[in-house]
Design a protein that fits this description.
21% helix, 8 helices, 22 strands, five-stranded mixed sheet
Length: 350
Amino acid sequence: MTAARHGGLRAVESLDARPGGEIPYSVMAFRSPGSSTPLPRQHTLAAPVELRGTGLHTGLPVAIRMLPAEEDHGIVFRRDGVTIPALVDHIDESLRCSALANRGVQVMTVEHLLAAAVGLGVDNLLVEVDGPEIPAMDGSALPFAEAMLAATLVPQEAPVRRVLLREPVWVSDGDRHVIAVPADSLTVAAAVDYQRPYGAAQAYSFSFGQPPTLASLSVVHTRVGGLAEELLAALRHPARVAVAENAPPPFVCEVAPARTFCFADWIPAIHSAGLGGGGSLENTLVLFDDGPSTPLRFPNELARHKTLDLLGDLALVGGRLCAFVVAIKAGHALHLAAAQLIRRQADAQG
């Protein structure tokens, strides 16, 4: 076992390795044993699409254009003539959002757009931004997903680049954890407990393929088994919604609509930190003592939004991640620390 520190975070890079350094998971396990199914192809947009709105933290008006990109381009932001690849190498720390930077140019709050791209399987995208922040829209990933679908997704010739873990990754900060376990496909899950009437224990799990195995669940339970059982129950039954003909992808219905949220008594501290300048009841679900500012879109909307944020932050590993990733009471700082460790010890193959 090797451990490192990322600020105040405890990062355990290797868990449960066998004696002698043998890795307990095959780095070639991209397909189920015996499967000869070829890797799916990369996708991009058929046409450019534009969105306009206000930055959640800066409060500035901003427009973005999402454009088609060639194979193996990845997702790249461009602002003031500077390109900023959506990779962990370009993370720029920012409170309560995910920010990227290159050559002194920053783009903030990228996680909802990235979550939409991952959720729809968009591998290659150029995002032109005319300001320092991606627009908040309604506080969810739904406007970005709908815009991408309106532009139409098209397959390309190259196979997808998959990122596969060799061994589990664990990052913790007190009772906050992110755990990633090797798997054949991606399942993301989040659990929160704010111990408030409208922020009680809740969890959500969404799978892009096969649900996690009992062995994967065992690894997670071993690390965080002291948590309330209700925080772990959803992990056993991730949402895998049946898709009717011509229906939107499950991600669009089940994850993308979940909105950014905050409790009313958080707002002074957010403003004191110079953030939330564009926050409003139109782009943030505010939870007051007597209820939410607008009706909840899901009973567990808070956990679903944390799942959405986790998915967007994991987009920075540089390919389609094959892992079972669980975030317990975590936020962007832990998500990004885990993404950095995943990128460091994972193999990306096309």
